[in-house]
Amino acid sequence: MSKFNYDPHKIYEIGFIGSGNMAQAIGLAFIKKGICKAENLIVSSPSENNKKVWRDIGAAVTTDNNDVFVNTKIVFLAIKPQYFPKVTSELFLTAKSSLNILVSIMAGISLNTLQKAFMFESNVIFKVMPNTPSLIGEGFSAISYLNEAKLEDISVNLEKVKLLMSAVGSVEVIPESLMNAAGAISGSGPAYAFLIIEALADGGVKQGLPRDLAVRLAASAMAGGSRMVLETGKHTGQLKDMVTSAGGSTIAAIHALEKGGVRYAMMDAVEAATNRSKEMGEKK
């Protein structure tokens, strides 16, 4: 097996099984925020391109998932959901492990499925739904734990997971039953925003604006509007009314959007994403 800086006699603080964009965003944030030193972080990766990112920061790299699973205190499962059965079948599940907390960031894999696969106590397993703005430290992570876990037993580990995920943005603890709906907004939401920004930019180009300016105007408007919602605490309708003067251009635009069914389309998108997540989970 190819390894880089991996010490088989060392117990690592944090490890990632999987090394893609989300794992990189979270892991690099841990190091940047001082949560974990690079030499105390290990990642398993089959991709040479991904290995380079971790090597450059001084983390230990291996191609053997068991190096992470057995020798790490906090393990993030950051693989694609379709690879979950294969990966778990190859792990040394009966071996003595240093693992204290298991965090899954896989969509569609339930906490019960994780518990059956790993046979851990309920206070060890957590499910986290981060989103792509985590790449720039503006993410939002929904966290769930098993229903049978007692809060007094899980509180210490839960606080650790909340602290870890706060490195890439805001966190919220929610019941797992709401995770698919949360993912349909938070996880898929950036894609909706990109589509809206692109459409607004297209509208600007149609009206004669240069493409790069139209994109920047649209993105800035979305970012600024979002920040106003989060920081003022005012109802979105109230904020909308602040922009919408009587007989003005904004109310004309709002009328066009309502006529086009924008509210229905966005609500339908969230419902479709939620239902698809449920279907994906049922297939596992």
From TrEMBL:
<comment type="similarity">
    <text>Belongs to the pyrroline-5-carboxylate reductase family.</text>
</comment>
<dbReference type="GO" id="GO:0005737">
    <property type="term" value="C:cytoplasm"/>
</dbReference>
<keyword id="KW-0521">NADP</keyword>
<feature type="binding site">
    <location>
        <begin position="17"/>
        <end position="22"/>
    </location>
    <ligand>
        <name>NADP(+)</name>
    </ligand>
</feature>
<keyword id="KW-0963">Cytoplasm</keyword>
<dbReference type="InterPro" id="IPR000304">
    <property type="entry name" value="Pyrroline-COOH_reductase"/>
</dbReference>
<dbReference type="GO" id="GO:0004735">
    <property type="term" value="F:pyrroline-5-carboxylate reductase activity"/>
</dbReference>
<feature type="binding site">
    <location>
        <position position="65"/>
    </location>
    <ligand>
        <name>NADPH</name>
    </ligand>
</feature>
<dbReference type="Pfam" id="PF14748">
    <property type="entry name" value="P5CR_dimer"/>
</dbReference>
<dbReference type="InterPro" id="IPR029036">
    <property type="entry name" value="P5CR_dimer"/>
</dbReference>
<keyword id="KW-0641">Proline biosynthesis</keyword>
<feature type="binding site">
    <location>
        <position position="45"/>
    </location>
    <ligand>
        <name>NADP(+)</name>
    </ligand>
</feature>
<dbReference type="Pfam" id="PF03807">
    <property type="entry name" value="F420_oxidored"/>
</dbReference>
<dbReference type="GO" id="GO:0055129">
    <property type="term" value="P:L-proline biosynthetic process"/>
</dbReference>
<keyword id="KW-0028">Amino-acid biosynthesis</keyword>
<protein>
    <recommendedName>
        <fullName>Pyrroline-5-carboxylate reductase</fullName>
        <ecNumber>1.5.1.2</ecNumber>
    </recommendedName>
</protein>
<dbReference type="InterPro" id="IPR028939">
    <property type="entry name" value="P5C_Rdtase_cat_N"/>
</dbReference>
<dbReference type="InterPro" id="IPR008927">
    <property type="entry name" value="6-PGluconate_DH-like_C_sf"/>
</dbReference>
<keyword id="KW-0560">Oxidoreductase</keyword>
<dbReference type="InterPro" id="IPR036291">
    <property type="entry name" value="NAD(P)-bd_dom_sf"/>
</dbReference>
<comment type="pathway">
    <text>Amino-acid biosynthesis; L-proline biosynthesis; L-proline from L-glutamate 5-semialdehyde: step 1/1.</text>
</comment>
<feature type="domain" description="Pyrroline-5-carboxylate reductase catalytic N-terminal">
    <location>
        <begin position="14"/>
        <end position="108"/>
    </location>
</feature>
<feature type="domain" description="Pyrroline-5-carboxylate reductase dimerisation">
    <location>
        <begin position="176"/>
        <end position="280"/>
    </location>
</feature>
<feature type="binding site">
    <location>
        <begin position="78"/>
        <end position="81"/>
    </location>
    <ligand>
        <name>NADP(+)</name>
    </ligand>
</feature>
